[in-house]
Amino acid sequence: MTDYFIAIVMSVIQGLTEFLPISSSAHLLIPSLIFGITDLGLNFDIAVHFGTLTAVVFYFRDDIVKIFNSFYNIKDENLASYRKLGLFVLIASIPAIIIGPFFSDALINRQVTIHSIAISNLIFANLLLAAYLLSKQKLSIQQLTYLSAFLIGCFQIFAFFPGASRSGVLITGALILGLNLKDGSKFAFLLAIPAISGALIFMVLGFNQNVNLNEILILTLGFLTSAFVAFFTIEFFLRFVNKIGMYPFIFYRFVLGLILIML
């Protein structure tokens, strides 16, 4: 099994699971369990995370440009809603910025176990189910308060536990605070931009600069594949989330968690 095939498999998994509420860390274990695939290393992790970051930035490029313009043209009331959205993202990112450095070693060394990921999957699947069943889902993003944005951001702290799913815990928090499912999902994806950027900073601290041509090709393949898959994953999820709801993802996480815990 070639490194190029491994790179494609891992990149597709990263692109699919980074933004779906099903835990990317759990799924990145599966190739090694089934095929005995070896870890492609921290450099590859950096490449695929940069790919997913590129995808989410490109997907929300219009919103991002308007957010930046809203702070530059502070008096333009037509951009007031985007200025508010930008502040929500900044405020919601504060908890992860404060807590993140304490998890930097685990992020670089990727210290995870199948058992811990399985337990996290089951716990946070239950939390998502409870939030989905009990949430009123009446609010749009613009109806959030700065306090509620901060509280949603606090849920992102749970994403530092392998198997929790960053998008999953943020959508859980958004539902608890009353956001409708589509806007809660969009807010979770926007929060991925500072979150993945922060993770990349810590990963780059352990970057191995001694790379050969073959590894450069593998890293490029990983970046392009994860970016392509992640973009269409975001597109699919936001377009159909109101129709498919959360039950398929919650059920899937229960099954995955039970399978992993029995291994």
Form type: globular
Give average pLDDT, whole number: 88
Distance between the termini: 24 Å
- Given helix and strand content, the structural type is mainly alpha
Count the helices. How many?
Answer: 12
- The radius of gyration is 18 Å
Tell me how many strands there are. 0
Protein described:
- By secondary structure, this protein is an all-alpha fold.
- It is globular.
- The chain has 12 helices and no strands.
- The mean pLDDT is 88.
- Helices cover 75% and strands 0% of the residues.
Summarize the structure.
The chain is mainly alpha-helical.
Question: What is the topological layout?
Answer:
Layout: H1 3-17, H2 24-35, H3 42-59, H4 61-72, H5 80-99, H6 104-109, H7 114-134, H8 146-155, H9 166-176, H10 181-204, H11 213-244, H12 247-262
Descriptors:
263 residues, mainly alpha, 12 helices, globular
